[in-house]
Design goal:
mainly alpha; Serine Threonine Protein Phosphatase 5, Tetratricopeptide repeat; 157 residues; 6 helices; single chain; elongated
């Protein structure tokens, strides 16, 4: 009987752990959703720096292994805000924002594959090409040529 009692308790413990994991995922998803919507609100009001306060915070709560699509989608939001700042500022700030956007798109594209998510892949790939093109236009010499070549490769994979 004690063996059965222990077995019952083990099963109860597993149920509790599953329930806690589900509750944790639900709360985490809610946090990410709220922070992304806060970022969207700022982004839509052309307050891109504020959006870059909310989107990376949302990204902090994502997990590539547990929810790769949410992880990648949040990176795309971060990249978009960097692009908007990059095309609006001058000098080194523009380069840094555009480089951050490229890095974010490339990371997102590790999950947003042509085979698994063709529409998301195409959108991210096209936007990556746009950002690389923008970088190429702003650069000079060999750097410009390299960036524009990367842009062409992004458009025609």
């Amino acid at each position: 009987m004690l063996q059965q009692a222990a077995q019952d308790k083990k099963e109860d413990l597993e149920k509790l752990r599953r329930k806690n994991k589900e509750a944790e995922k639900e709360l985490t998803d809610g946090i990410v959703s709220d922070l992304r919507r806060a970022g969207d609100s700022s982004y839509n009001d052309y307050r891109f720096e504020e959006a870059l306060g909310s989107y990376p915070e949302a990204f902090h709560y994502t997990n590539r292994e547990n929810d790769p699509q949410l992880w990648a989608a949040t990176l795309v939001y971060i990249a978009a805000a960097h692009v908007e700042l990059g095309i609006r500022v001058e000098g080194q700030g523009a380069k840094e924002h555009l480089a951050a956007a490229v890095a974010a798109y490339r990371s997102a594209l590790e999950v947003l594959t042509r085979q698994d998510l063709p529409q998301d892949w195409a959108r991210a790939q096209n936007t990556l090409g746009n950002v690389l093109s923008e970088q190429g236009i702003r650069a000079e010499g060999k750097e410009a040529t390299e960036l524009l070549s990367q842009a062409v490769a992004a458009y025609l994979p």
